Give the backbone structure.
Amino acid sequence: MIERKGAWRRRRILAGMMTGAAALAAPSILRAAPSGKPVRVGGTLSLTGFLAQTAAIHKIAAEIMVDEINGRNGFLGRPVEYVLLDDQSKPEVARSLYEKLITVDKVDLIQGPYATAPILAAMGVAQRYGKVMIQSSMGIPKLQTYDRAFPATPFGPEPEKTYPNVILDAMASLPNPPKTIVVLSSKFPSAQFMAQGMRDQAEKRGVKVTLYLEYESGNRDFGAIAARVKEANADFLWVGSLGLESNQLLEALHKLDYKPKNHFHLYPAPGPLALSPDGDKALCSTFLEPSEPFLSRPGVRRIAGEFKERATKANLPYAIIDAQAAGMVSEWQILEAAVNGANSLDDKAIADWLKKHRVETIYGSLRFDGPYNHGGAAQLIKQVQDKEWKVVWPKEFAAPGVSLLGA
């Protein structure tokens, strides 16, 4: 009886706090099973097309979170149903599908798709109907001008300035810091945006850009591009890649018997790059990896274990949670906290609540009161070491015994 009363009191406290961390940490036994008409949450992911390798990670993470939320109290005591459609990695398809989700399928809420171009397409539809849209992977914050759009990943309002400097700080810590750089990028909007930022910041810090080159999104033939990279032979190669593009580039360079001295990849499919023989010591963007200090955050260890189990069953090449999966986890944590905090499914009420409150997520404490509804920047760098990604920079986020390795 005392235990039951304590559980009831804890439920009341959790309801009052309305934070993602509290919900994450609470065992489902403390929550009443949701019942009644499902709350339908609609969204798209690039289940096919050139972004599919990464979108598959987001799909698994979303399914984990829907099960977690339904294992607690659902949304306002009602079960959550995720209505997921395939946007085929095409912004125009995403636009049409979000229109369908809202007007035909009559979903109650929406979640954002993966990648900047589909997100921007979906955002226009969300704005037309006044829907809150939480997204985790739009790399151009200044384009998020819609008042009810919220980021689930801590890019910060100016990642084109903050992130290149994190990378350059890391490179400057090496015994032989790079003096020259090649900046190679997809023309995909967020990659191109970050590439231009990397070029600008490198030049400001005295690192000479010997080659700046862009290629079409979804390109698969990197032979001619690899020849240009080899000819430039810079100390550092920065690649604004998505999906399998980094693997394809490194394979093309390997055929030319050329290995970059140090190389960074923006948004690659994490598994294929980590496991590739050409991926050794590759650097990449991240916000979380399954090691300390991240595993000490509430619920992270449990979610990491669940992701590994499901990703293994789905035959993903790299069944380890990372920033891509964590971004989708964060999306659902934010939506759950906002629905509970506002005690409503009304989009205006949810948006108003988010602007006034922090949410504890897998990424830590996020706020939405800065430019473009962004909070502070929290970019990290990871490196492939022994076919696993390890956070190496900033140093305080590296696991014990892990450090940045040069070429």
Remarks:
- Residues 2-154+293-376 form a domain with the Rossmann fold fold (CATH 3.40.50.2300).
- Confidence is low (pLDDT under 50) at residues 1-30.
